[in-house]
């Protein structure tokens, strides 16, 4: 049995509340290349896809979704306590 140490155990990621999610749809039909990118509206991206299909008959798309994240310590983590003590000591 092997053992491993995960050095990121005291860290977590959360979605950055200061940014909006981004949705993108790309038509992958040969020779088309149309694309639609929108902030914070999956419904708009889906509507564009349906309208593009209606107008062109194209059925193949690539859809992506992404959002910014922040790496930090989870509430109550040992590392969070250490960082808070260091911050207070630095004042």
Protein structure class: alpha+beta
Radius of gyration: 22 Å
Strand order of the largest sheet: 3-2-4
The overall strand count is: 5
Mean pLDDT over the full residue set:
83
Shape: rod-shaped
Describe the biggest sheet? 3 strands, antiparallel
Number of helical segments with 4 or more residues: 2
Low-confidence stretches: none
The H/E string reads EEEHEEH
**Percent range for β-strand residues:** 25-35%
In helices, the fraction of residues equals 25-40%
Note the quaternary state here: single chain
Distance between the termini: 47 Å
Descriptive report:
This protein is α+β, with helices and mostly antiparallel strands and 91 residues long. It is built from 2 helices and 5 strands. The protein has helices at residues 42-56, 78-89, and strands at 12-15, 22-27, 35-39, 61-66, 69-72. Strand 2 (22-27) and strand 3 (35-39) form a beta hairpin. The termini are far apart.
Compact overview of the structure:
The chain has 91 residues and is of the alpha+beta class. It is 30% helix and 27% strand. It contains two helices and five strands; from the N terminus they run βββαββα.
Write the layout of secondary structure elements.
Blueprint: E1 12-15, E2 22-27, E3 35-39, H1 42-56, E4 61-66, E5 69-72, H2 78-89
Antiparallel strand pairs: 1-5, 2-3, 2-4
């Amino acid at each position: 049995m092997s053992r491993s140490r995960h050095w990121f155990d005291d860290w977590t990621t959360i979605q950055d509340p200061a940014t909006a999610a981004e949705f993108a749809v790309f038509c992958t039909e040969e020779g088309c290349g149309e694309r639609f990118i929108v902030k914070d509206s999956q419904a708009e991206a889906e509507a564009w896809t349906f309208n593009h299909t209606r107008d062109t008959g194209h059925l193949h798309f690539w859809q992506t979704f992404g959002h910014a994240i922040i790496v930090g310590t989870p509430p109550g983590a040992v590392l969070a306590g250490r960082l808070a003590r260091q911050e207070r000591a630095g004042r």
